[in-house]
Amino acid sequence: MAVNTEAYQSIKKELDAKQVTLVAVSKTKPVEDIVALYELGQRDFGENYVQELVDKQAQLPNDIRWHFIGHLQSNKVKYIAPFVQLIHGVDSLKLLKEINKEAAKNNRVIDVLLQVHIAQEETKFGMNAEELNTAITEFENLKMANVRICGLMGMASFSDDMEKVRGEFCNLKTLFDASAAKLATHHLPLSVLSMGMSGDYAIAVEEGSTMVRIGSLLFGARNYAK
Ligand SMILES: *Cc1c(COP(=O)(O)O)cnc(C)c1O
């Protein structure tokens, strides 16, 4: 088993001291690896693929808080709506509406983060600043009762240029503060800023992250070929 429990303990301690939530990203990893961290007290786990998440959720304890951090297709919302804790990557009004609908069917309110595109790479999902503004305005007008926007999520460029990465996180924090101010006039507190992964979480925390998503530092490198 490749779980690095020492790295877990030290990262967890460091983040607790700064009141930053650690989401352990377990995609492609077996349930035994999740159990290893669960036994050390970890409860927040992140997955990217719907089928994999559903399979794991069925096999693991009920008090795990499951975060969906991948790109979610509208037609798959129904599979995770009964139990998901937080959906990080919401990047369209269409998806918000679908989550609202499926949450209502399950008599729940589902918490979500809007994903903002901050990296230079074209491949990363998310809204730009203008789309974010529009989404928030339309969300307020539609008065969706079963979905709650709790904050923003973003991914920095995959780059060794740490000043560039820092600048991208800083941009996201600025957008977060502006969105929070906008929504504060209505009664929707924005409290979660999900940014930072294995390679850049320390910078993300310095720039104001409240939630980091860490996979390979805890579980080892991923092998997608299997
Ligand atoms: C896979 C993934 C992570 C974790 O990446 P690591 O570099 O292994 O820490 C974090 N966030 C998202 C959105 C991911 O897809």
UniProtKB/TrEMBL annotation:
Recorded GO MF terms: pyridoxal phosphate binding
A Pfam cross-reference name: Ala_racemase_N
Gene3D superfamilies for this protein: Alanine racemase
CDD domains: PLPDE_III_YBL036c_like (cd00635)
Cofactor(s) the protein needs: pyridoxal 5'-phosphate
Domain Alanine racemase N-terminal: residue ranges: 8-222
N6-(pyridoxal phosphate)lysine: residues bearing it: K27
SUPFAM superfamilies associated with the record: PLP-binding barrel
UniProt keyword terms in alphabetical order: Pyridoxal phosphate
Recorded family membership: Belongs to the pyridoxal phosphate-binding protein YggS/PROSC family.
Function field: Pyridoxal 5'-phosphate (PLP)-binding protein, which is involved in PLP homeostasis.
Protein name, entry field: Pyridoxal phosphate homeostasis protein
